[in-house]
Design goal:
Elements lengths: L12 H10 L2 H13 L1 H4 L3 H6 L8 H11 L3 H10 L16 H8 L3 H16 L1 H6 L12 H13 L7 H10 L4 H8 L2 E2 L2 E2 L27 H8 L1 H7 L2
Antiparallel strand pairs: 1-2
Length: about 240
């Protein structure tokens, strides 16, 4: 049982790592700073630790530990990507998509690039018409394979401390009683009264508002987001 966020220096790196892994989400967040402070001692333990975890879920503890490992430098990054060339999180695609580049950018916390890759993947999943025109119609969303939308969502959840992803946005929308006019300000997706994809107010860091990413071009209105969040595969994750 954890007693708040107090973990003394006498606790071994191994024990600190296990406490973090077994803690509740709230307790985990209280341990982030301490793990970061002891990163040099913890990093050598991370590769074997995550190897024993379930890579078919979306536990953000593993994603954060991977990010802590990769922040150690080029040697850690090279070793990790040699061991997991396709990324640690297991992803599936019913439409032949390769999610390795997206997982790499998320693991490296390159959120802007990850967001662009997500948009490109959604266009590919929606079909040749979406690729040609450069955006997805809401009517194209139902035909997207649920497996692929699950993979996209799991990747964002895993590598964002559970703060970003379609399912996160869906739960926030539920908390707003389905009212988009209440949700947009919480996501900070509006600047100077205009919906646009790249206003200066967007944040490409983990400190962005919950549900901030992946971004959707709201010049298309709410119908695309309604279609995405209403997809049976994402509905299942939103209600989980």
């Amino acid at each position: 049982m954890l007693s708040g966020s107090r973990v003394t220096a006498s606790v071994s790196p191994e024990e600190l790592l296990q406490r973090f892994q077994s803690a509740t989400p709230r307790q985990r967040r209280s341990l982030l700073a301490q793990l970061d402070q002891r990163a040099e001692a913890v990093r050598p333990l991370i590769p074997d630790h995550i190897a024993a975890l379930d890579a078919t879920g979306d536990d953000w503890a593993a994603g954060w530990l991977i990010q802590l490992l990769l922040a150690g430098g080029a040697a850690e990054r090279d070793s990790f990507f040699r061991r997991y060339p396709q990324g640690w999180l297991a992803t599936s695609s019913a439409q032949g998509m390769d999610y390795t580049p997206l997982q790499r950018q998320l693991a490296l916390q390159n959120f802007e690039q990850a967001d662009r890759l997500t948009s490109a993947l959604l266009r590919e999943l929606a079909g040749p018409g979406a690729v040609r025109r450069g955006y997805v119609y809401f009517s194209e969303v139902p035909a997207i394979a649920g497996t692929d939308l699950e993979s996209l969502d799991r990747l964002w959840v895993c590598y964002s401390r559970g703060r970003f992803g379609f399912s996160v946005q869906g739960r926030l929308l539920q908390a707003c009683a389905g009212r988009w006019d209440q949700l947009w300000p919480r996501l900070h997706w509006k600047t100077n009264g205009i919906w646009t994809r790249y206003p200066g107010g967007f944040q490409w860091t983990i400190d962005a508002p919950e549900g901030h990413m992946p971004l959707i071009n709201q010049l298309r209105g709410v119908r695309l987001m309604d279609a995405l969040l209403g997809h049976p595969a994402l509905q299942q994750r939103i209600k989980a």
